[in-house]
C-alpha cells in the first residue's frame, strides 16, 4: 500500500525527469532562474519553519498551561490553516496585506510593502505551517507534570535552567518533528503563495510555480527535473533534522 | 430508443402488470443514457464566463424550441493553456472555445480532433474577435495614451505571465507590433515593458483582480471585453479605457473535440452549439458581452458603436502561432531572455 501511494509517484517522477538524459536534466535545473526559485522557496520555508517552531511552541504552551476566556475558540482556530482551502487563505491574506488592505495600508504608511514581495510569501508560509508545530508539541506539553518543574526548582535550578535542561529535552523530539512538517509543507506550498507573491522571475517566483509554468509549456521532463531537485533538497533537510533527533536522543536519553 | 421501449411497455401492459413492470425497469435503465447524451461540456478560457453564461441560456431555449429535450450545458473556465492541457490529459470536453488557435492545435496534435479543424467553421472558426486595450485609473493620472507611455519612469503595468496566459501573449505581441511600427527594437521595448511589471499573474482574470481590487499598478493591459466588464461591474467613474494607436486582432477559436463525442445525439448537439454562435441572435449577445462579433444585424447599435476603430494586426503578421510560440514563448525563447539576462 505504502509503495503504491508513495514510491510509485516518486519513481514516475524520476523516470520522467531523467527521460531526456542527464545533460537535459542539468540544463533544466542549472539556470539562474531555477536556482533563484529554488533558493527562494527553501530559504523562505526555513525562515517560516523557524518562526513557527518558536511561535508554535509558545502558542502550544499557552494553550495547555493557561486558562483564559476564549481559550477553546483559539484552540480550535489553530487548525484553521489545515481546514481552509489554500487558495482561500491566499486570497484572504492578499486582501489583508495588499497596499489597500487593512494591514497593507499600515505598512504602506510606513513606506513598506508586504504583498507581492518576499515578505508576503513568508507570511503565507508561516500561516500554512503554524499548526504543524503547535499540534505536534501540544500533547507532549500536556504530559509534562507541573511537579517536574517544582522538583527542579526545589533542587535549586533557576527557571532558565529548568527550561533548558528539564523541559526542552522532553519537548525537543516533538518540536523537531513539527518543525520538519512545517518546513516540508512550506516548501511545496503553491495555492496560497501564488496570490500573494508577485511571481516575478528571479525575485518572487517560487519553485512550485516554475514547475507549473514548465507544465504549461508542455515541458514535462523540465517540470519533473525541478521536482527532482526539490525532492533531493527536501530529502537532505529531513535527513539533517532526523540526524539531529537521533543525536539529541543519544545525548539526553530517549525521552 | 427510449420511446420504442415505452411503446412496447404500453402494449405489454395490456397483457399483464408484471410485463409492464419489466418494461418499466428497461425504460428506467435506458433513461440515464439518453440524459447523458444531452450533456455538453464546453472548456473555455478565463474571461468568457459571462459570455457563455448568456450564450448557454439562449442556446438551451433555441434547442428546446426546435423540439429537442433541454440539454445540460456545462462550462469550465481557466487559463487557455491549462485548459488545453486538461483536455489533452482526458477532460471530457465535447467543445473547446479557447483563446488561441495554438492551444487547440496542441489538442489536435494528440489526435483528439482533425488537424484542419479551423476550416470547419466560418471566419477561421472564430465566432467573435477581441483586442487588447489599456485600462487606467479614472482621469488617467499618469497620462497614458499609447504603448510608448508604458515604459515611462514611475509607470507600473499589470499584465499576466505569457507563459501561462493566452491573453498575455496577445499583450506582448501588441507591444511588439507597436515597437516595430515606431522604429524601436521590439525586443528591447518588451524587455523594458516587463521591467515595469510589479506582479506577474497567472491568468487574465487574476491580473484584472490585482489591478481593480488590490489597486496595484497604473495601467492594466486587458482584453477589450475584460476592460468593459470591469468598467460595468465597478463603475465607469473608477476606470477609463484607453485605446492605443495599434493593437492585435485576437481570434479566439472554437472546435468540436471529436474524440470526446460519445454518440450521434451528442454530435448533433455539439455541432448545433458551435453553429449557434454564428446566428444573429448569438452575435447580438456577443456584442452585448463586449466581444467584437461579425454580424451586427440583430445587435443593439449602442453595443456595436462602443468599439472604436483602431489599427489591428493579426497573428499572420507575426508568422502564425507555431512560429511565435517557438521563437517568443518556448523554453529559452525571447520572453525567457527578458528575465534571465540580468
Describe the 3D structure.
The complex is a heterodimer of chains A (255) and B (342). Chain A has helices spanning 2-18, 22-29, 32-65, 71-77, 80-83, 86-97, 102-109, 118-143, 146-154, 159-188, 193-196, 207-216, 220-252. Chain A is mainly α. The model of chain A has no long low-confidence stretch (mean pLDDT 88). Chain B is an alpha/beta fold and 342 residues long. Chain B folds into 2 domains: 38-128 and 252-305, Periplasmic binding protein-like II (D-Maltodextrin-Binding Protein, domain 2), CATH 3.40.190; 132-250 and 310-340, Periplasmic binding protein-like II (D-Maltodextrin-Binding Protein, domain 2, 3-Layer(aba) Sandwich), CATH 3.40.190.10. Chain B is 47% helix and 13% strand. In chain B, strand 1, helix 3 and strand 2 form a beta-alpha-beta unit. Chain B is globular. Chain B starts with a helix and ends with a helix. Residues 1-37 of chain B have low confidence and may be disordered. At the A-B interface, helix 12 of A face helix 4 and helix 15 of B.
Give the N-terminus to C-terminus distance of chain A in angstroms. Answer: 31 Å
Query: Which structural class should the secondary elements of chain A be placed in?
Result: mainly alpha
Main sheet: strands, sense, barrel of chain A: none
Assign an overall shape of chain A.
Answer: globular
For the secondary structure, the number of strands of chain A is 0
Q: Please, how many helices of chain B?
A: 15
- Using the coordinates shown, work out and report the CATH topology of the domain at 41-194 and 229-252 in chain A: MetI-like fold
**Helical coverage of chain B, percent range:** 40-55%
Radius of gyration of chain A, in angstroms, nearest whole number: 21 Å
Tell me the fraction of residues in β-strands of chain B, as a range.
5-15%
In percent, how much strand structure appears in the residues of chain A? under 5%
> Which architecture name of the largest domain in chain B does CATH use?
3-Layer(aba) Sandwich
User: What are the low-pLDDT stretches of chain A, counting only 5+ consecutive residues below 50?
Assistant: none
Output the strand order for the largest sheet of chain B: 2-1-3-9
CATH architecture of the domain at 41-194 and 229-252 in chain A: Orthogonal Bundle
What is the rounded distance between the termini of chain B?
A: 67 Å
Oligomer: heterodimer
CATH C-level label of the largest domain in chain B: Alpha Beta
Give the number of helices of chain A.
Answer: 13
Amino acid at each position: 500500500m505504502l509503495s503504491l501511494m508513495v514510491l510509485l509517484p516518486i519513481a514516475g517522477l524520476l523516470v520522467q525527469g531523467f527521460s531526456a538524459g542527464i545533460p537535459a536534466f542539468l540544463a533544466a535545473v542549472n539556470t539562474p532562474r531555477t536556482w533563484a526559485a529554488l533558493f527562494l522557496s527553501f530559504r523562505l520555508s526555513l525562515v517560516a519553519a523557524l518562526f513557527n517552531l518558536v511561535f508554535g511552541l509558545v502558542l502550544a504552551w499557552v494553550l495547555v498551561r493557561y486558562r483564559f476566556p476564549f481559550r477553546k475558540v483559539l484552540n480550535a482556530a489553530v487548525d484553521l490553516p489545515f481546514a481552509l482551502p489554500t487558495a482561500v487563505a491566499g486570497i484572504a491574506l492578499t486582501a489583508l496585506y495588499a497596499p489597500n488592505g487593512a494591514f497593507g495600508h499600515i505598512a504602506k504608511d510606513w513606506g513598506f510593502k508586504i504583498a507581492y514581495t518576499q515578505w508576503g510569501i513568508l507570511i503565507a508560509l508561516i500561516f500554512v505551517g503554524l499548526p504543524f508545530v503547535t499540534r505536534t508539541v501540544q500533547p507532549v506539553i500536556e504530559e509534562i507534570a507541573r511537579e517536574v518543574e517544582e522538583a527542579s526548582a526545589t533542587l535549586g535550578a533557576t527557571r532558565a535552567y529548568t527550561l533548558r535542561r528539564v523541559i526542552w529535552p522532553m519537548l525537543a523530539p516533538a518540536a523537531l518533528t513539527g518543525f520538519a512538517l512545517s518546513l516540508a509543507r512550506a516548501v511545496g506550498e503553491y495555492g496560497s503563495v501564488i496570490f500573494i507573491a508577485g511571481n516575478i522571475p528571479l525575485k518572487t517566483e517560487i519553485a512550485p510555480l516554475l514547475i507549473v509554468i514548465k507544465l504549461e509549456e508542455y515541458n514535462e521532463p523540465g517540470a519533473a527535473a525541478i521536482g527532482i531537485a526539490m525532492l533531493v533538497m527536501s530529502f537532505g533537510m529531513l535527513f539533517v533534522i532526523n540526524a539531529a533527533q537521533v543525536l539529541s536522543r543519544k545525548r539526553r536519553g530517549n525521552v | 430508443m427510449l420511446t420504442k421501449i415505452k411503446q412496447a411497455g404500453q402494449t405489454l401492459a395490456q397483457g399483464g402488470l408484471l410485463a409492464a413492470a419489466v418494461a418499466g425497469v428497461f425504460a428506467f435503465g435506458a433513461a440515464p443514457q439518453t440524459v447523458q447524451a444531452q450533456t455538453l461540456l464546453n472548456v473555455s478560457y478565463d474571461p468568457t464566463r459571462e459570455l457563455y453564461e448568456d450564450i448557454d441560456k439562449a442556446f438551451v431555449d433555441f434547442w428546446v424550441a426546435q423540439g429537442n429535450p433541454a440539454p445540460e450545458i456545462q462550462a469550465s473556465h481557466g487559463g487557455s493553456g491549462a485548459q488545453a492541457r486538461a483536455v489533452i490529459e482526458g477532460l471530457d470536453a465535447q467543445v473547446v472555445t479557447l483563446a488561441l488557435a495554438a492551444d487547440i492545435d496542441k489538442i489536435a496534435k494528440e489526435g483528439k480532433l482533425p488537424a484542419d479543424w479551423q476550416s470547419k467553421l466560418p471566419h477561421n472558426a472564430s465566432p467573435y474577435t477581441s483586442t487588447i486595450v489599456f485600462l487606467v485609473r479614472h482621469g488617467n493620472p499618469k497620462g497614458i495614451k499609447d504603448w510608448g507611455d508604458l515604459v515611462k519612469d514611475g509607470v507600473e503595468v499589470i499584465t499576466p505571465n505569457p507563459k501561462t496566459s493566452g491573453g498575455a501573449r496577445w499583450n506582448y505581441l501588441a507591444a511588439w507590433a507597436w515597437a516595430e511600427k515606431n522604429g524601436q527594437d521590439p525586443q528591447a521595448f518588451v524587455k523594458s515593458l516587463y521591467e515595469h511589471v510589479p506582479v506577474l499573474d497567472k491568468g487574465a482574470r487574476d491580473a484584472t483582480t490585482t489591478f481593480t481590487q488590490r489597486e496595484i499598478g497604473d495601467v492594466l493591459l486587458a482584453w477589450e471585453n475584460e476592460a468593459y466588464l470591469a468598467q460595468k461591474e465597478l463603475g465607469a467613474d473608477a476606470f477609463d479605457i484607453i485605446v492605443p494607436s495599434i493593437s492585435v486582432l485576437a481570434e479566439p477559436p472554437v472546435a468540436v473535440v471529436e474524440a470526446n463525442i460519445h454518440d450521434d445525439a451528442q454530435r448533433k448537439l455539439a455541432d448545433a452549439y458551435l453553429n449557434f454562435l454564428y446566428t444573429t441572435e448569438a452575435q447580438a449577445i456577443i456584442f452585448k458581452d463586449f466581444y467584437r462579433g461579425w454580424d451586427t444585424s440583430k445587435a443593439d447599435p449602442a453595443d456595436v458603436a462602443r468599439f472604436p476603430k483602431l489599427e489591428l494586426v493579426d497573428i499572420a503578421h507575426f508568422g502564425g502561432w507555431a512560429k511565435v510560440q517557438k521563437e517568443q514563448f518556448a523554453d529559452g525563447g525571447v520572453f525567457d531572455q527578458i528575465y534571465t539576462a540580468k
